[in-house]
Amino acid sequence: MTPAPLNDSGISALKPETFECAGAAAPGWDIYHLEREWRDWIIEPPRDADRAFVGFCAKWFEKRGRA
Fold it and tell me: Quick one: 46 exposed, middle or buried, by C-beta within 10 A (0-12, 13-18, 19+)?
């Protein structure tokens, strides 16, 4: 099995189902905007990028509420 290609941030591409989970974690927000914010914010690649991104979205929503 070949790992997913890395992008500029060194983080593998996220799974399609991750975006569904992220949308549920941050309803009303543009998930692709949040992905850019997350990739700009992250310092080093996490062990589980998909889980880390969903967690980031949940925290974003917790702090900022619905868009």
Answer: middle
- Cβ-proximal residues to 50 (8 Å cutoff; 6+ apart), any chain: 14, 15, 18, 21
Residue 12: the pLDDT is 84
Give the separation between CA 44 and CA 52, rounded to whole angstroms.
Answer: 12
8-to-1, 33, 40, 48 alpha-carbon distances in Å: 22, 16, 10, 17
Give 18's DSSP letter. H
Using 50 as the pLDDT threshold, list the residues of the chain that sit under it: 1-6
CA distance 52 to 3: 18
pTM over 0.70: yes
